[in-house]
């Protein structure tokens, strides 16, 4: 099998050198070139025909966001953003994902907590995953008409104790936005785990809140869970729920990683299954790996309705694909139908 051709785009000679060395260490990948700015990259893409790009956000002459916007319009292809994983860098990185970047990773630092060998493993995993991503999956994904769903929730009451849990990874920020922004104000409570770094979850929740009729929060420990609200797991803690005399509350757990993740979709789904039983619904969206697939099966076995996103609309059909193979999904749906399905099962 021919190696995956990677083009590095970064204005720092040191970063280009580090990335080249790391990527070239895996026989499945080949660095076909390295550009120091988007203008040079544009010519190299034509000449070298790479399978996947790494793209820096902060560059002279043209920034990564402007370049990505043009690239996805004229020549859509898999892109992994190399970004500053800080609160400051979060809005730009989330914008890059909304423009069609498949994934992102921080800049390699020799003095970072994530050692260079761990960083190398992570970027190799992300590049291989990105090379197989369906970069046009989100094209033409229609938002369900919130007005139509609103009419449904006004004509019928919501089931008491109903709660929906959603899990996602690669491609998930935009998939979750497509679902949540389609929900009417009078929606059931929804808890969400998206694999995301600690500095990004606050920005993600704010961005989602601004695009939605429902209220979106970054979940706080012991925060009451209410109808018409969505709770996003913080980037450094597992999100669980507890049932009290007054309803469900959020519980945050900074314990060990599960399936290499914290927050983990499996932890959320198992908690919802334990606390809500057959009153729960589980939804697994686009993502690399299999986090949450086994737990979605346990939800289905407990009598819950379960949904997996279909392959055609998934950026990466890893997690939903694993769930489908296990028989964990009662329904496999295109992204545009997920919000309506949640409302349908939440109504009495």
TrEMBL record:
Keywords: Chemotaxis, Cytoplasm, Hydrolase, Phosphoprotein. It is found in: Cytoplasm. The active site is at 169, 195, 291. The modification 4-aspartylphosphate is found at residue 56. One of its GO terms (cellular component) is cytoplasm. Pfam families: CheB_methylest, Response_reg. Residues 5-122 form the Response regulatory domain. Its EC number is 3.1.1.61, 3.5.1.44. One of its GO terms (biological process) is chemotaxis. GO terms for molecular function: phosphorelay response regulator activity; protein-glutamate methylesterase activity; protein-glutamine glutaminase activity. Residues 157-348 form the CheB-type methylesterase domain. Its main location: cytoplasm. Phosphorylated by CheA. Phosphorylation of the N-terminal regulatory domain activates the methylesterase activity. InterPro entries: CheB-like, Sig_transdc_resp-reg_Me-estase, Sig_transdc_resp-reg_receiver. It catalyses: [protein]-L-glutamate 5-O-methyl ester + H2O = L-glutamyl-[protein] + methanol + H(+); L-glutaminyl-[protein] + H2O = L-glutamyl-[protein] + NH4(+). It comes from the Bacteria. Contains a C-terminal catalytic domain, and an N-terminal region which modulates catalytic activity. HAMAP family: CheB_chemtxs. Involved in chemotaxis. Part of a chemotaxis signal transduction system that modulates chemotaxis in response to various stimuli. Catalyzes the demethylation of specific methylglutamate residues introduced into the chemoreceptors (methyl-accepting chemotaxis proteins or MCP) by CheR. Also mediates the irreversible deamidation of specific glutamine residues to glutamic acid. PANTHER family: PROTEIN-GLUTAMATE METHYLESTERASE/PROTEIN-GLUTAMINE GLUTAMINASE (PTHR42872), PROTEIN-GLUTAMATE METHYLESTERASE_PROTEIN-GLUTAMINE GLUTAMINASE (PTHR42872:SF6). NCBIfam families: PRK00742.1, PRK12555.1. Belongs to the CheB family. This is Protein-glutamate methylesterase/protein-glutamine glutaminase. It comes from Saccharophagus degradans. The gene is cheB.
